[in-house]
Every structure is written in C-alpha cells, then in structure tokens.
Amino acid sequence: MKNVVVEINNIAMTYHSLEGETEAIRNIDLDIYEGEIVGIVGPSGCGKSTLLSIIAGLIKPTSGTVLIKGQKVSKSNRNIGYMFQKDQLLEWRNILQNVVLGLEIQGKLSSQHYEKAKNLLNNYGLGDFIYSYPSQLSGGMRQRVALIRTLILEPDFLLLDEPFSALDYQTRLAIADEIGVILKREGKTALLVTHDIAEAISLCDRIVILSKRPAIVKEIIDIELTCPEGRCTPLGRREAPEFRFYFNKIWKELDIHV
Amino acid sequence: MSKNNMSKEHKNYLTSIKKRNKTILITQIAVLILGLILWEIAAHFKWIDTFLTSYPSQIWRLFINYTKNGNLFHHIGISVFETVIGFMGGTLLGFVVAIGLWWSKFWARVFDPYLVMLNSLPKTALAPIIIIWVGAGYSGIIVTAISVSIIVTIMNMYESFVSVDEDLIKLLNTFGATKFQILKKVVLPSSIPALINTLKINIGLSWVGVIVGEFLVSKAGIGYLIVYGGQVFKLDLVMMSVFILAIISVLMYRIVAIIENKFNRW
Ligand SMILES: Nc1ncnc2c1ncn2[C@@H]1O[C@H](COP(=O)(O)OP(=O)(O)O)[C@@H](O)[C@H]1O
Ligand SMILES: [Mg+2]
C-alpha cells in the first residue's frame, strides 16, 4: 500500500450567520495517497471549496480532523499548494516576481531560488516572458505561471479549486493536459475540484462524488483506463474505451435535474 | 508592428486620426479666443455692463500690474502653499485612517455611521468652527482644507482595501503571510489606482477648503483677492483671480496625471 499523504477524518462544517445556519458538509472521510490525483465532483454550492479551505487549514471544521503526513494542519507546518479559478497573479509584478511571491513571504528568497524560478519558467515554455507583466500573457499562460508559483514551494500536496474553469474551451483542454502531465511527472499528490466530468476522468486516478448540500461522500470511483503506451496523457486518456462508461456512471450519480 | 511593413491603408488611417485630433485642438483654442473676442467687443459697444462683467483687456492690464509689483505671486504662493499642505495632509491622514479601519473590522463598523454622516455633511459648514478653534491664520485655513478631503479619502481607500479578491488573500494565507505582509504585498499595491483617483478628487476639494477659509479670515491669497474684489466691486480683480485659480488647478491635475502615467506600466 502506498503512503497516505492526507487523512480526512469525519469532517463536518456548519456556517453560522445572522440569516441562519448553513450545514455545508455533513460528513466526509477520505484518505489521499502519495502520487495520486483525486477528483471531487458535486453540485455547485455543495461545499467543495469549503472542504479545500478546511484541508488547507484556513478555516476550522465544526468537527473532525485533517492530518497531512500524520500531522494536524496548522499555520506553522502547512506546506500546501493552492490554485484557484482565477490565477491571482499580481498585475504590478513581473512573471519572475510573481513566481517567487511565496518564497518572498516566507523569507526564504535567495539567488538560487531566482535561478530555480527561471529554470522552471524555461522548462514550461515561459522563458521569453520572465520579465513580462501578467497582462501581456494569455489566460492559459497565466494559469501555468500560477502553477509554477505553487510548485516552486515544493508543496506536500496541491489543492486545485476549478483551476481551468475560467479558460475558454480549447485553452482549457490544452492546459489541463499540460498540467496533468506536469503533476504526474513530478509525482505530485493533488485534490482537484471540477464540474467538468470529462476533465475529472481524464486527469484523476479516483473521483469522489459528493451529494448536494450538506455534502457527504456518495461514491468513490477508481478510474482505470487502457490507453496506448506513451499516450497516457489526459488528452490520450479521453480516447480510452472505458471513458464513456465512467462518464455515464458519474453523470447518473450526480443526478442532475435541470 | 514595425513601421516599414505598415500597409498603405493603415498609414492613411493614422494620418486621418492625427488630422482629426489636430482639428479638435484647433477648434478648442478657437472657441476660447472667439469667446474672449466676443466678450471684448460686447464690452466695447456697451452691450454688457462692464461694471458687472469687466472685460479681457482690462483683466489683462490688471494682471500685468499685479505681476509687476510682485503682489500676485505673493497671493498665489500663499494659496498654493495652503492647498498643497491641506491636500497632502488630508490625503495622508485619510489614507492612514483607512488602513486602520481595514486592520480592525470592529472599529470599521463602529465608525461606519459617523463616516456616512460626515460624508453627507457639507464640510464647508464646519469652516467657521474650525477657524475659531484652530486660529484665524494659515493653520485654520489648512485644517479647513484637510477637513474637506479627509472623509472622501477614508471612504474611497477603505472601499478599495476591502475589495481585494478573497481568494487572493486565501493564497497569501497558504503562504503563511502575516496581516502586515498581506497589507504591504497585496492590499496597498492593488489600491494604487484608487489612490490616484482620490488624489485627483482631492485637488479640487482642497482648493474648496482653502478658498472658503480665505473668504472667512485671510489677509492674503487668491480667496482673499476674490472677496476683496467683490466688496469693492472691482470685478476685473475677481475675474482675474478666478482665471488664475482655474489655471493652477489644471496644472496640479496635470502633475497627478504624470504620476499616474508612471504607474501605468502594467
Ligand atoms: N463564509 C461563509 N459563510 C456562510 N456560508 C458560507 C460561507 N462560505 C460558503 N458558504 C455556504 O456554504 C455552502 C458551500 O459553499 P462552497 O464550499 O463555496 O460550495 P462549492 O465550492 O461546492 O460551490 C454554500 O451554500 C455557501 O453559500
Ligand atoms: Mg467553489
């Protein structure tokens, strides 16, 4: 058995406000293993972003615990990469300065890190844009910069909250493919929230289906796709014969009524 | 695109745009000159009462006189000084208070109704009180100018501080950022456009404060010239002062616009 990176034990979360209380998550129990990409799908407003914030230690759950590499998440020990729907690049910083933002805040920035940042940017096809400003880059390139900003911190694992949904369809396919390949190559562990079923199947090793609010785990599906050797990229996986089967299964489970 | 491989249509397009801009500028100048000429002619043929309106050549002669004996620069200097200090004071103090309100949600809520009330109050109504409290000299006028611009500054800047994307703050938190780092790295830089807008608004507001202050108490300054000219019915003096006021305000606005361009890199 592989090592567990994240243990989510009986998480529940209720928000309180003057208008009343919102039970966002009833009970979620989930282990995430090293090197796997786990997808989370569920109706909008069911508590997916809330779950990610809890895992990152940004908000405290009403009950339950989260362990990362056996330790409770806290402000001091967390080393988690987070990507959002918007790339959240700072417009007044050039690409290099954006990439090193996390290191700068943690007071770790050194000339070696600048070299490392430049190498990463070169490797991911952004070598010509090191000193450009975010506004000069396309949406897909910006999201790639956001990924590098995350990876340079060498996080134990990554939380991806609908990272591609702000992009147009074609860019989205290309960037999802690219980022999927990078995550696998670097052996990263990740939790990916998406509302795109096909995207989830093409990128993930397992998919967790959440119920509508208050969220519980409805089902966990292991994705096993047969794809030709060397073509097992997210785009290649879309051509696997089992793809349709998984798509229909998840679609039925999500039980979407319009 | 480089200049050499520009197509002919594009060249024509550019020249036509340039031509149009030039025509607009020329027309703008022509409107001004025509207005002045009409005013002069109307005065000359007594279509208007020059006692009430004065006329361009008379205003010009007065201007030359005032510049020659140096009086004018004395008055302008005093008003500009009061305005610049009031402007910087109001902006700076407002900025600091806005940071404080961003820092403490509690105090932001406590002060919210007071800010709303002060914002809707015409600040010039406070001028007599301020001048009695602070004194009838420059300081009273400067404080009046500050009081006019500070509330708007607080409200605009606070609004901008709290409008920073929540996910961005979340991101900084995952990096382990302190509140001070969030302020310095994200909140302040992303509020520069709001700050520049506030600067532009505050130029006008500071002048309002200074002129009102000078109306009330001063012995020198552009506001003093206007009040004095009005009292002794020297309308040429009033008109000249207003023209000078307009020109200086535009100049100050241009300075802020230059600062703005410096930040327009991104
Ligand atoms: N800070 C908050 N205060 C109160 N309710 C909240 C807060 N954040 C989210 N919620 C509510 O919790 C539910 C889950 O939200 P969220 O986790 O953002 O859903 P999802 O990401 O799955 O779309 C929603 O009904 C939302 O309105
Ligand atoms: Mg969400």
Notes on the structure:
The complex is a heterodimer of chains A (258) and B (266). Chain A has 258 residues and is an alpha/beta fold. Chain A has a domain of 176 residues: 3-Layer(aba) Sandwich (Rossmann fold). Helix content of chain A is 33%, strand content 26%. Chain A contains nine helices and ten strands. Chain A has a ten-stranded mixed β-sheet with strand order 5-4-1-2-10-9-3-8-7-6, sandwiched between helices. In chain A, a hairpin with a 2-residue loop joins strand 1 and strand 2. The radius of gyration of chain A is 19 Å and the shape is globular. Chain A starts with a strand and ends with a helix. The model of chain A has no long low-confidence stretch (mean pLDDT 89). Chain B is an all-alpha fold and 266 residues long. Chain B folds into two domains: 42 residues; 216 residues, MetI-like fold (Orthogonal Bundle). The model of chain B has no long low-confidence stretch (mean pLDDT 91). Classes of the chains: A alpha/beta (258), B mainly alpha (266). Bound molecules: adenosine-5'-diphosphate and magnesium ion (MG). The site of adenosine-5'-diphosphate has 12 residues of chain A, from strand 1, strand 2 and helix 1. Adenosine-5'-diphosphate (ADP) binds next to strand 1, strand 2 and helix 1 of chain A.
Quick synopsis:
The complex is a heterodimer of chains A (258) and B (266). Chain A has 258 residues and is α/β, with parallel strands linked by helices. Chain A is 33% helix and 26% strand.
Strand order of the largest sheet of chain A: 5-4-1-2-10-9-3-8-7-6
| Computed Rg of chain B | 24 Å
Q: N-to-C terminal Cα separation of chain A, in Å?
A: 41 Å
CATH fold field value of the largest domain in chain B: MetI-like fold
Average pLDDT reading of chain A: 89
CATH class of the largest domain in chain B: Mainly Alpha
Largest sheet of chain A: 10 strands, mixed
Write down the overall geometry of chain A: globular
Proportion of residues in β-strands of chain A: 25-35%
Task: Tell me the Rg of chain A in angstroms.
Answer: 19 Å
Oligomerization state: heterodimer
Count of alpha/pi helices of chain B: 12
Q: Which stretches of chain A are poorly predicted, pLDDT < 50 over at least 5 residues?
A: none
User: Secondary-structure element sequence of chain B?
Assistant: HHHHHHHHHHHH
Q: Any low-confidence stretches of chain B, pLDDT <50, length ≥5?
A: none
Strand content of chain B: under 5%
What's the main sheet of chain B like?
none
Query: Architecture of the largest domain in chain B in CATH?
Result: Orthogonal Bundle
Percent of residues in helices of chain A: 25-40%
Count of extended strands of chain A: 10
Number of H/I helices of chain A = 9
